[in-house]
Amino acid sequence: MGNATAYEPLALEGGAPDFSGLTVIEGGGVTSACGFKAAGVHAGFRKNPGRFDLALLVADEPAACAAAFTQNIFCAAPVMVSRQHLDDVSYGTARALIVNSGAANAATGSVGIESAIRTAEIVGEVVGCPPSEVMIASTGVIGVQLNMNTFETGVPLVYEAISVDGGADAARAIITTDTHPKECAVSFAGDPIGYPGCTFTVGGMAKGSGMIMPNMATMISAITTDAPVNPDVLHEVLLRAVKGSFNKVTVDSDTSTNDCCFLFASGAAAPQGQPFEPGSPALAAFEHALNAVCGTLARDMAADGEGATRLITVRVAGAATDAQADAAARTIANSPLVKTAIFGHDANWGRIAGAVGRSGAQFRQEDVSIDIMGMPVMRAGLPVPFSEEEALRRFERPEIDIDVDLGAGTSSTVMWTCDFSHEYVTINGDYRT
């Protein structure tokens, strides 16, 4: 086929985090913000002594805390207990977050609940805070009871190791099938927003590469800031950030039992400053920084999907409503046929069109346009000739873009996913063993 030079690529924007006005902190993470320390150690939840499996994040003082939790009815015991510690409204005050990998403490009944409660008690005793100020998260195999002796010995061990430089070790300790830790941190100046001489930081860590299609946040994530933000406002901002980042990721269309995202605010960068108020330039600047961190972590999870070789960004424009834009993008991103076509370097637009057609979004097929990697492959519902050789060349990129315009309205959205490879089946075929 020849090149389709008569057609211009779709001018759809979005997909990458916006770092304008922010300073990216090289090597930054969950302890980049003032007022936090962390550590990761091998405590014994995993057999391999070279694998860190227990992470602890501690605020110097009780901090504002907000969270988003999985909507999966089969939610894990740590999710239930953490919700209770935040008075079942998902915001309040907290001092610490403990995360173990290797066992999810999900589908473990009353024993699992007791284990989560006891975990908070152990951490509280060591850190010096009430158990209600301890958030808990677990990740790993479902249906396995935790060994509480490992917490009894591991929590003092990890607390002894905490430092302002311990964020990277904590990020290592929470991963499961991830190929690498996921961290990000940014800062922004306080002078333009009414806090002269202050610099505020937002940093975080996350894990997740399989059983990923969030319905809140996804995976496990801890984010910190030294900005002064009250818990209820912190929660509102977090939910908005989650909606546009973690909730736009899918690896395999499965929502985990253990998904949780915690956001802590120490206020340490402006200890005498007034809290950021809704509608203020200060809160807008903070929300911009939070979105950049969450978006970076979310994209990193999609790119690190189990067995993935390519990050896929799906952009849908021209939808009649936001919900229909999301439905179309999510259906494309979850389609095994689309994901395997990308793995096989096949610009198979028919699979994309088929996914959109069954998504529930309302449109006329004669109004639809599709681009793959910037190449027009469909206009007005009909195929456009393109160069297969050029397509193969573009498939060498680490990120593959799919752009769809439904021609039915003004709503748009972005989703991140990855391809399906042989390795995905291998990883999940023997996950428990």
The second-level CATH architecture of the largest domain is: 4-Layer Sandwich
The end-to-end span amounts to 48 Å
* Shape, per Cα inertia axes: globular
Fourth-level CATH superfamily of the largest domain: L-amino peptidase D-ALA esterase/amidase
CATH fold-type name of the largest domain = L-amino peptidase D-ALA esterase/amidase
**CATH level 1 class label of the largest domain:** Alpha Beta
Overview of this structure, please?
This protein has 433 residues and is an alpha+beta fold. The chain folds into two domains: 23-303, L-amino peptidase D-ALA esterase/amidase (4-Layer Sandwich); 311-429, ArgJ beta chain, C-terminal domain (Ubiquitin-like (UB roll)). The chain is 30% helix and 25% strand. It is built from eleven helices and 15 strands. It has helices at residues 77-85, 109-127, 148-161, 167-173, 231-243, 281-303, 322-334, 336-343, 349-357, 388-394, 422-429, and strands spanning 23-24, 36-41, 54-69, 91-103, 134-141, 182-189, 199-207, 220-225, 260-265, 311-319, 369-372, 375-379, 382-383, 399-405, 411-418. Strands 1, 2, 3, 4, 5, 6, 7, 8 and 9 form a nine-stranded mixed sheet that branches. Helix 5 (231-243) links the parallel strand 8 (220-225) and strand 9 (260-265). Helix 5 (231-243) crosses helix 6 (281-303). It is globular.
